[in-house]
Amino acid sequence: MLLQRLGNVAVLGLCNPAQSVGIGHRAVHGGYQISEWASRQMFTASTIGPKLRELYARAVSEQCDASQADKLEKGTFAAGCFWGVELKFQRIPGVISTQVGYTGGQLDYPTYNDVMTGSTGHAESLMVHFNPKLVSFEELSRVFFESHDPTTPHRQGNDIGSQYRSAIFYHTEEQRRVAESVRDRVDDEIRQLKKSEETRHVVTSIVPFVQWWPAEDYHQQYLEKGGQSAEKGNTETVRCYG
């Protein structure tokens, strides 16, 4: 066990795949889950400000990253409404943890309401920690492209706005290379399928990962909480609104 002190708050951390952690994101929403391999919730939103939340999340992430560095890698994807995207990735064998949030924007500590204005530059996104011995980043990228329409800029179905754009935020140069390769192959496949129709092409952006802001607890594992199975290997249709 790890004892971290941030300000006047004591944080007890456990990097364990079987456990989860939450800290207060907003007083209205309660704690948010950081990952399946961190410690149990130790305090609530009413006692913690935004800066302390960031420090706590960073401390837990760094400690768990250090202990799991030889096993886990990160991947960050944006493919429209993050509820459905998360459930699809939860079901993938080798994906250890998932968290929805906001990235790619300018505003610090964005809320869901901020992002929904479309003015902050953030995309609704999913961060996963995965075991590359069980599933490769290439395989995850393929699932990403199969999970949404990558040819519609700033739109997925009825969800319209830059916050619903298609993007891969790469963490390493190797991820960039793999993502671009998969994107190009998918683009070729789509062009072949659509060759007799109006020309369409993949508009997915592949950009460096910069800053991550976890979404409110209400959004974490939303569809699983609503009763849809997150069991590994499950192939049931994902119903985005439960």
TrEMBL record:
GO terms for cellular component: cytoplasm. Residues 76-227 form the Peptide methionine sulphoxide reductase MsrA domain. The keyword Oxidoreductase applies. One of its GO terms (biological process) is cellular response to oxidative stress. GO terms for molecular function: peptide-methionine (S)-S-oxide reductase activity. Its EC number is 1.8.4.11. It is an enzyme of class 1 (oxidoreductase). It holds the Pfam family PMSR. Signal peptide: none annotated. It catalyses: L-methionyl-[protein] + [thioredoxin]-disulfide + H2O = L-methionyl-(S)-S-oxide-[protein] + [thioredoxin]-dithiol; [thioredoxin]-disulfide + L-methionine + H2O = L-methionine (S)-S-oxide + [thioredoxin]-dithiol. The keyword Mitochondrion does not apply. Keywords: Oxidoreductase. PANTHER family: MITOCHONDRIAL PEPTIDE METHIONINE SULFOXIDE REDUCTASE. Belongs to the MsrA Met sulfoxide reductase family. This is peptide-methionine (S)-S-oxide reductase.
